[in-house]
Design brief:
Distance between the termini: 41 Å
CATH class of the largest domain: Mainly Alpha
Number of domains: 3
Strand order of the largest sheet: 1-5-4-3-2
CATH topology of the largest domain: Endonuclease III, domain 1
Helix content: 40-55%
Mean pLDDT: 96
CATH architecture of the largest domain: Orthogonal Bundle
Radius of gyration: 19 Å
Largest sheet: 5 strands, antiparallel
CATH superfamily of the largest domain: Hypothetical protein, domain 2
Order of helices and strands: EHEEEEHHHHHEEHHHHHHHH
Number of strands: 7
Amino acid sequence: MQEQEYILENLDSFELKDIFDCGQCFRWNIRKDGSYTGVFRNNVLNVKKENNKIIFKGICEEEIQKTVKEYFDLDRDYNEIKERLSNIDKNIKTSIQYGQGIRILNQELWETIISFIISANNNIPRIKSIIERLSKKYGNEIEYQGEKYYTFPTAMELKNVSIEEYRSLGLGFRDIRLYETTKMILDKKVDLNELKENPNTNEIKEKLLTLSGVGPKVADCILLFSELKRFEVFPIDVWVRRVMNDLYIKQEDENKVSKKQIEKLANEKFGNLAGLAQQYLFYWRREA
DNA sequence: ACTCAGGTATTAC
DNA sequence: GTAATACCTGAG
C-alpha cells in the first residue's frame, strides 16, 4: 500500500500529547521530532503538529481523510462540550484548560476490550509492552518508512493461543482472562457486532461484565474509549477517586468513599458528559 | 530487597 | 449486597 497524506489547518481541541497521553490508548509513541506514530485497525499513521497545521501521514486501507475523521472524532464539537462543562464549576474548568486538546479516539471494540483487561492492576509501560509483544507475535506486519509495525491481533488470530503462551508473553495472572474472553467472543457468547448496534448502554455493560477480566471499571473504559463512544459513563479508578474526593467529597480517607457515591455525584454534576469530565479530571490530576 | 501499578475474582460476613 | 485478600511482573 502507498503512503497517504492529509493536512488540517486551524483545528481547535487537538493536541497530540493530550490525546495520546490522557490514558485512553496504548499504541501511540512519540518520536524525536515530537510527532506520534501509532497503529489502529490496519493502518499505520504518523501525526505531527506544526504551528496551526496538523499533518497526518501513513498507510491507510481507505482514504486517509475518512480514516482520520472517524478515528479522531473530528465531527464532534469539542468547543461546545468544553464550554458546557466549564460552566459547571471552577474545578472542571481548570482541568479543561489543562487538557484542552483531548479528543476521544474511535478505537476498535475488540482491541479496547483486550487492552483494558490487560490494564488491570498494571502500569502503563508494562501494559504497552505487553500489547506490543502480543501484536508482534500474533498480528500482521505492516512496513512503513523502513520500520515494521504490527496490527493488533484479531480474535481469530488468538484462537489457538494457549494460556501458557500468554503467560510467556508476560501477561501474568491475566493470561486466563484473555484466553477465556477470546473464547467467549469467538463462540459469540458475547456478540460484538450486536453490542455495536445495541442502543442500550446498560445492556451492553451487562454483557461486557460477563467477560472474564471485565469488571465495572474496565467495562466503563470500553464503553467510553471504544467505538461504542458512550460519553455518559464514568470509569472510576484510583486517580478519579482521588480527584473526586479532593474536589467535592472531601473525606479523610478517599478509599472509604463508595463507588456508588462517586457515580451518583458524577451523574448529577456532569450528566451525559460525565465520561468527558472524567477524562479531563483524570488527566489533570495525574499529570499536572 | 521491596513497593507499587488504569482492578478483578474469590471468599467470607 | 458490602468488605477483605490474593494475584503476575518488572521498573524504580
